Amino acid sequence: MRLKDKVAIITGGGQGIGREYALRFAREGAKVVIGDIRDAQATEVVQEIKDLGGDGLALRTDVSKDEDTKRLADTTHEHFGRIDILLNNAAIFYDMDLNDRSLEYFNKILSVNLTGVWLCTRAVETYMKRQRRGKIIHQSSTAAYMGNAGVVDTSDPELPSPVPHYSVTKIGVSGLTKYMAGYLGPWGINVNTICPGLTLTEAAKRIVPEDMMSMLPMFTALKRALQPQDLTGTAVFLASEDSDAMTGQVLVVDCGMIMLG
Fold it and tell me: Which amino acids are annotated catalytic?
């Protein structure tokens, strides 16, 4: 087991990709703390972890609130005595309203998807600094690297443009990775990011039109769609000692659609 006795916090671990991360980390021997605003679902995942013979804890957490993120870190340390891994997975996607183009909603998406990453990292970093060791993993998206070509309605100049809030937050997460890697590296803390392509979660099926989802494999080098489980191996690598010499990197996992370099 590659994460034996490590203590990992996974935000947004109550469903979708976050749930798969939590279960895989537990199978690899980690004690898993799930911080999620959906506390009932988080509790169910913790029970799944215990059914696997692992140990876990569910804490209701709104990552956009400073006091919640501090409580998440403090309670984890009080309960398990250390914090080895933070996986910043929480984001507004499943409930995203693509028709809301207001400033208030733009700021709401930013507060969770981007500011939440900073707040959670800030909450755990003191504990990791004391250990002079830690693994922080952010979750970006290939949406950060794709424009809106082909989806713009030019029939009416009065129509507001599509709102890029989700993509903007994800390119922000990729950017944060570089800065955090620089100032946390001297403390022995690695900061890297997983950048998934469109993944066949319930959230994606709700947001993305069915015909587009069915066409996805055509645009990948591996000619298949990305499943939530496909991301967990990369997360384990970044959380384990195998990635000790790696920091400040954004790893795309999308079956070969966006090829950064």
Answer: 166
